[in-house]
Amino acid sequence: MSEVTIYTKVGCPYCAAAKKHYNDNGIEFTEIDVHETTGAKDEVLKLSGGKSIVPVIVENGEVTLGFGGG
């Protein structure tokens, strides 16, 4: 079973699309809102190489910036 974490923010259509994709495919994930979770913004910057972007998806240790699937 894969481990998936999605860093999101409210109102982000790409975040919503990513969550829908994982839900539609029956894949459980942990959602972390970068504005609500202490330290999450710093973690996103670390994972993204300094880019301020969401969603950041971490699946089995592999980092994906943004979401273009569906």
Describe the structure.
29% of the residues lie in helices and 24% in strands. It is of the alpha+beta class and 70 residues long. The chain has one domain (4-65): Glutaredoxin, CATH 3.40.30.10. The mean pLDDT is 94.
State the oligomer.
single chain
* CATH topology value: Glutaredoxin
Beginning-to-end CA distance, first to last residue: 21 Å
Q: How many strand segments?
A: 4
Q: What is the gyration radius calculated from CA atoms? A: 11 Å
- Largest sheet entry: 4 strands, mixed
| H/E topology pattern | EHEHEE
CATH level-1 class: Alpha Beta
- Overall domain count: 1
Residue windows where pLDDT falls under 50 for at least 5 positions: none
Q: What is the overall silhouette?
A: globular
Descriptive tags:
alpha+beta, Glutaredoxin, 4-stranded mixed sheet, 29% helix
Briefly say what this structure is.
With 70 residues, this protein is of the alpha+beta class. Helices cover 29% and strands 24% of the residues.
Layout: helices, strands, pairs:
Blueprint: E1 4-8, H1 13-24, E2 30-33, H2 40-47, E3 56-59, E4 62-65
Parallel strand pairs: 1-2
Antiparallel strand pairs: 1-3, 3-4
